[in-house]
C-alpha cells in the first residue's frame, strides 16, 4: 500500500501557519505571558507562611477546619523540601491555562449542547485533542511560541480542554426537558432560560469537568518541563534526566500535594456555588452530630476578610523588604540553556553565579539539544555554554547558524569515544567489539537521542566498523548511561558506553577508551559558547566576558565534581564552593569597574603606614593602601627617610612598614629599635645587594674588575640615600675589601641614581650604580650584577613587614593578613612597572591597573568571610 505522507502535510501546515500567522502567535504569547508573570508575581512575592495561611483560610471556608490544618501542613512540607518556588510557578501556569480553557470550553460546550451539528463537528476534534499523546503538543508549541512557559501553557490548554467541553455539553443536555419547556411556556427568553435554568442545574456536571481540566492541566504542566516551562515540571525532568531519586520523589510529592489541594477545593467550590450542592452539603452536615463543629465553615465575608488581611500583610512585607541596591547588570534578565551534560550544567551554573554577582537576573533551563537550539534560534535562550563544534552539534549548528553568534571556544580539545571497563582486557579498539555482541548483551549504552554523538555513532561509527547488525544503541540519557555503567562496573560485567573527554567518569572508574583507527568519530570538538543573534549587541560587556572565558581540564573537572557533589537542585552551592577554593575567578572571568568588596571586621580602622622612597616600598605601600580601602579601612601613608621612619616606627607614630631588609641591610636599625618592634613576617625571599654596570661594558664582571677600570667610570659609583644600610655597608666593608676607597660614592637618592643610569645608558657611557634585587631596572635595562667573590655584601636579605609592638593588638585583622602575605618576583616586578608607567602622583592608578590584571588578588591578600 502506498505511503500516505500525513506527517509531511502536518509539517507543511505548521510552516504555513508560522509564516502567515506569526503576528497572531506573538500577540497570544504576549497576552498569556503577561497573565502568567502577573499571577506568578502575586504567588511568589509573599513569604511562604503567609501564602500558606491564605490557602488554609480558603480551605477552611470551603471544607472546614481539618482541611485547613492539612492544607497548611501540606504546603509547609513543600516549603521544607525546597520546592515552594517551583510549586508556585506550576500553580501559576495551571491557573492561567485553566482560565483560558474555561473561557473557551464552557461556551463551546453550551453551543454544542444547543446545536447538534456543532456537537457532531466538535466530537472528532475533541477526540483528537484528548487522545493525541500529550508530548506531541510540545512540538508545534516550540515552533510557534519558542521554549519556556508558552509552549507548555498552550499544550496544556489544548490537552485539558476536551473534558470541559464534553462535561458542559453533557450537563446542559441532562437538564430535564420539561423544566426547559416550562420556562419557554412562560415566555422566558432563551438567554434567560440558559442562565436561570440550564446552567444552575448543569453546574455540578460543569464543575466536575472543570475539576478534570485542573487535574489534566497539572499533569501536562509536568510534561511541559521538558521544553523549559518553569516549576515542578522542570524539577521532575531534571530528576529523570539525572536519575535523581531524591529530587524526583520530592518534586513528585509536591505535585501530589498541589493536585490534592486543587481537587478538594474545586470539588468543595461546587458545593458552595451550586444550589443542588448546597442542599447536599446541608444534609451531610446535619448527619454529623457531635462532630459538626469540626466542619463549621466561616461565612464568606469572614473568610474574605481573613484572606485580605493576610494578603495586605504579605504585600506590605514584600514592599518593605525590597532591596533598592543597583549593580552592574541593572537586574536585566539573561536566559541560559543547557543540555543536562556535566560540563554543560557546571559551566551554566558557573555563569549563572557570575552574572548574579554582577547584578543580572539569569535563569538556567535544562533542555533537550533540539529544543535548546530551536529555542535559541528563536531568541528565547540568550546563551548556551556547551555547543560541541564542529562535529557533535554540527547538524543543529548548520541548520541555525544564521540565527546564532559564536562567542568562541572555552575548552579545546575534546574527544568522543566508546569506553569499556579496563577489566575487559582484550577490548582495546572499536574493531575488538566485532563478533562479541553476545558478551555485551548486543547493545551499546547511549545517551540522549538528540545528541550529535549518538547520530555519529549510528550513522557512521557502527557502519565503518561493521557493528550495525550486531549492536543496538540503547538511547536513554547521560545520567541513565552512568547509572548503567556504575551498576555493571560494581558487578564486573561487560558494558560498552558512549563517553567523551573530559569527563569525571574517567577519574571514578578505570576505563579504556576504545581506539578509533578509522577516525569515524572525527577529530574532536571544541566547547563553544553560543549566543542568540544580536546578543553581543544587546549585552556587549557580557559577550566580551564570555569571549575571554577559558577553563583548563583541571578546573573543569574540579568544577564538575563540586556541582555533582552538591546534588541536584543545589548546583549553585557547588559552584560557590568551587569559587571559594579558586578565589578571584569571578573577577577574572567578569572584570567589572563597579565590583564591590566585602568590608573587613576592623573596617574604619586607620593604620599609619610609613615607607622609604624605594620602588618596592612605594609599590607595596600603595598596594596595601588600595586593598585596605577596599576593605573599609582608612589608612594614612607617609614617605620618610629610612632613619626617621625607623624612629617613628619605634615610637608608635608609624604603625607598620613593608620594606624592612633583614637581617643584613638594615641590621643597625633593627638592633637599635627591636625592643619596640614586632617582626610580622617576610613577604619576599631572597633579595640581594650589588653594584651593577651596563652590559655593554664588556670587561667588567666583578668588583675586582671595577677597581681596574676606575678611570673609565671617572672614579665614581652612583649611590642612593645616605642613611640606608646598603650605603653604609658599601663604604665600611665592600669598598675596603676590593680597594675601592678611591672611588667617589655619590649620595643622592634612588630617583637620582636611576636618572643618572638612564642618561648614561642612552649615551652608552660607562656607569656603576648601587642596586638591589628585585628591581624593575633589570627589566628595563640590560645590566650586569658585579660578582662579589669575597661575599662582602653579606647574606641575602628578606623583605619584611615590621610593626610597632602594639600593632597586632590594635589591628588584629590586618596583622593576620600580613602574616600570610607573599609576593613572587614576577608580581613585584610587574607592580613596580605599573606604578612607574603611571608616573609620580598617580601611584593609585598604577595599583588599580595592576589589580585589574591580577583578579582575585584582593581576596588573596585580605580574605574576609
UniProtKB/TrEMBL annotation:
Gene3D superfamilies in alphabetical order: Dipeptide-binding Protein, Domain 3, Glycine betaine-binding periplasmic protein, domain 2, MetI-like
Domain annotation ABC transmembrane type-1: ranges: 87-266
Record keywords, A-Z: Cell membrane, Membrane, Transmembrane, Transmembrane helix, Transport
Membrane-spanning parts: 21-39, 51-78, 90-114, 134-159, 201-227, 239-262, 302-320
Keyword Metal-binding on entry: no
Primary location: membrane
InterPro entries assigned to the protein according to its UniProt record, in alphabetical order: ABC_Gly_betaine_transp_sub-bd, MetI-like, MetI-like_sf
Cellular compartment(s): Cell membrane; Membrane
Membrane topology summary: Multi-pass membrane protein
Similarity remark: In the C-terminal section; belongs to the OsmX family. Belongs to the binding-protein-dependent transport system permease family.
Protein name: ABC transporter permease/substrate binding protein
Organism: Streptomyces chrestomyceticus
Amino acid at each position: 500500500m502506498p505511503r500516505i505522507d500525513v506527517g509531511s502535510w502536518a509539517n507543511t501546515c505548521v510552516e504555513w501557519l508560522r509564516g502567515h500567522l506569526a503576528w497572531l502567535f506573538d500577540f497570544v504569547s504576549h497576552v498569556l505571558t503577561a497573565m502568567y508573570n502577573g499571577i506568578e508575581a502575586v504567588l511568589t512575592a509573599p513569604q511562604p507562611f503567609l501564602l500558606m495561611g491564605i490557602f488554609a483560610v480558603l480551605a477552611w471556608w470551603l471544607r472546614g477546619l481539618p482541611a485547613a490544618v492539612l492544607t497548611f501542613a501540606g504546603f509547609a512540607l513543600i516549603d521544607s523540601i525546597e520546592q515552594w518556588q517551583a510549586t508556585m510557578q506550576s500553580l501559576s501556569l495551571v491557573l492561567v491555562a485553566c482560565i483560558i480553557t474555561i473561557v473557551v470550553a464552557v461556551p463551546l460546550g453550551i453551543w454544542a449542547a444547543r446545536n447538534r451539528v456543532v456537537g457532531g463537528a466538535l466530537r472528532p476534534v475533541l477526540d483528537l485533542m484528548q487522545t493525541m499523546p500529550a508530548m506531541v503538543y510540545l512540538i508545534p508549541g516550540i515552533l510557534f511560541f519558542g521554549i519556556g512557559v508558552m509552549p507548555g501553557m498552550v499544550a496544556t490548554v489544548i490537552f485539558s480542554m476536551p473534558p470541559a467541553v464534553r462535561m458542559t455539553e453533557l450537563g446542559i443536555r441532562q437538564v430535564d426537558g420539561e423544566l426547559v419547556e416550562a420556562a419557554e411556556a412562560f415566555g422566558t427568553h432563551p438567554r434567560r432560560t440558559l442562565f436561570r435554568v440550564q446552567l444552575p442545574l448543569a453546574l455540578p456536571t460543569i464543575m466536575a469537568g472543570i475539576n478534570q481540566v485542573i487535574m489534566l492541566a497539572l499533569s501536562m504542566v509536568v510534561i511541559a518541563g521538558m521544553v523549559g516551562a518553569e516549576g515542578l515540571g522542570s524539577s521532575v525532568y531534571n530528576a529523570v534526566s539525572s536519575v535523581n531519586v531524591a529530587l524526583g520523589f520530592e518534586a513528585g510529592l509536591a505535585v501530589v500535594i498541589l493536585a490534592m489541594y486543587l481537587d478538594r477545593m474545586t470539588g468543595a467550590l461546587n458545593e458552595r456555588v451550586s444550589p443542588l450542592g448546597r442542599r447536599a452539603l446541608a444534609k451531610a452536615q446535619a448527619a454529623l452530630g457531635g462532630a459538626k463543629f469540626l466542619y463549621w465553615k466561616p461565612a464568606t465575608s469572614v473568610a474574605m476578610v481573613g484572606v485580605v488581611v493576610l494578603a495586605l500583610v504579605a504585600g506590605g512585607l514584600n514592599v518593605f523588604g525590597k532591596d533598592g541596591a543597583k549593580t552592574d547588570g541593572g537586574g536585566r534578565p539573561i536566559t541560559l540553556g543547557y543540555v543536562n551534560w556535566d560540563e554543560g550544567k557546571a559551566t551554566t551554573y558557573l555563569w549563572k553565579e557570575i552574572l548574579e554577582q554582577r547584578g543580572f537576573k539569569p535563569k538556567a533551563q535544562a533542555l533537550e539539544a533540539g529544543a535548546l537550539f530551536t529555542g535559541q534560534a528563536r531568541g528565547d535562550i540568550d546563551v548556551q555554554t556547551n555547543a560541541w563544534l564542529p562535529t557533535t552539534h554540527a547538524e543543529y549548528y548548520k541548520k541555525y547558524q544564521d540565527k546564532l553568534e559564536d562567542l568562541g571556544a572555552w575548552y579545546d580539545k575534546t574527544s568522543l569515544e566508546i569506553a569499556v571497563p579496563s577489566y575487559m582486557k582484550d577490548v582495546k579498539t572499536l574493531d575488538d567489539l566485532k563478533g562479541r555482541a553476545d558478551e555485551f548483551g548486543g547493545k551499546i549504552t547511549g545517551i540522549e537521542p538528540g545528541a550529535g554523538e549518538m547520530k555519529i555513532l549510528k550513522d557512521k561509527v557502527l557502519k565503518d566498523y561493521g557493528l550495525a547488525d550486531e549492536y543496538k544503541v540503547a538511547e536513554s540519557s547521560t545520567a541513565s548511561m552512568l547509572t548503567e555503567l556504575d551498576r555493571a562496573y560494581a558487578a564486573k560485567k561487560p558494558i560498552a558506553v558512549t563517553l567523551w573527554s573530559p569527563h569525571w567518569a574517567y577519574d571514578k572508574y578505570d576505563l579504556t577508551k576504545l581506539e578509533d583507527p578509522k577516525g569515524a568519530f572525527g577529530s574532536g570538538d571544541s566547547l563553544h559558547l553560543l549566543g542568540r543573534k544580536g546578543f553581543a549587541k544587546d549585552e556587549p560587556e557580557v559577550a566580551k566576558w564570555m569571549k575571554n572565558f577559558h577553563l583548563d581540564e583541571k578546573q573543569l573537572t574540579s568544577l564538575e565534581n563540586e556541582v555533582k557533589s552538591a546534588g541536584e537542585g543545589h548546583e549553585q552551592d557547588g559552584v560557590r564552593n568551587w569559587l571559594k577554593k579558586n578565589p578571584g575567578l569571578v573577577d577574572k572571568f567578569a572584570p567589572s569597574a563597579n565590583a564591590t568588596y566585602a568590608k573587613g571586621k576592623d573596617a574604619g580602622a586607620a593604620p599609619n603606614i610609613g615607607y622609604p622612597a624605594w620602588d618596592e616600598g612605594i609599590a607595596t605601600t600603595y598596594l596595601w593602601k588600595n586593598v585596605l580601602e577596599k576593605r573599609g579601612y582608612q589608612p594614612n601613608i607617609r614617605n620618610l627617610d629610612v632613619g626617621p621612619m625607623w624612629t617613628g616606627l619605634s615610637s608608635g607614630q608609624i604603625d607598620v612598614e613593608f620594606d624592612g631588609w633583614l637581617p643584613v641591610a638594615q641590621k643597625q636599625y633593627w638592633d637599635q629599635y627591636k625592643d619596640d618592634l614586632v617582626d610580622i613576617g617576610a613577604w619576599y625571599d631572597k633579595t640581594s645587594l650589588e653594584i651593577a654596570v651596563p652590559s655593554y661594558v664588556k670587561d667588567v664582571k666583578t668588583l675586582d674588575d671595577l677597581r681596574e677600570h676606575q678611570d673609565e667610570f671617572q672614579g665614581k659609583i652612583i649611590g642612593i640615600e645616605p642613611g640606608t644600610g646598603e650605603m653604609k655597608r658599601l663604604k665600611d666593608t665592600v669598598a675596603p675589601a676590593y680597594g675601592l676607597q678611591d672611588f667617589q660614592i655619590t649620595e643622592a637618592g634612588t630617583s637620582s641614581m636611576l636618572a643618572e643610569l638612564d642618561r648614561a645608558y642612552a649615551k652608552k657611557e660607562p656607569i656603576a650604580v648601587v642596586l638591589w634585587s628585585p628591581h624593575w631596572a633589570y627589566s628595563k635595562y640590560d645590566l650586569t650584577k658585579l660578582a662579589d667573590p669575597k661575599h662582602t655584601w653579606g647574606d641575602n636579605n628578606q623583605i619584611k613587614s615590621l610593626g610597632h609592638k602594639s600593632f597586632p593588638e590594635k589591628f588584629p585583622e590586618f596583622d593576620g593578613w600580613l602574616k600570610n602575605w607573599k609576593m613572587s618576583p614576577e608580581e613585584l616586578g610587574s607592580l613596580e612597572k605599573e606604578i612607574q608607567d603611571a608616573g609620580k602622583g598617580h601611584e593609585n592608578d598604577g595599583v588599580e591597573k595592576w589589580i585589574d590584571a591580577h583578579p582575585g588578588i584582593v581576596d588573596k591578600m585580605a580574605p574576609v568571610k
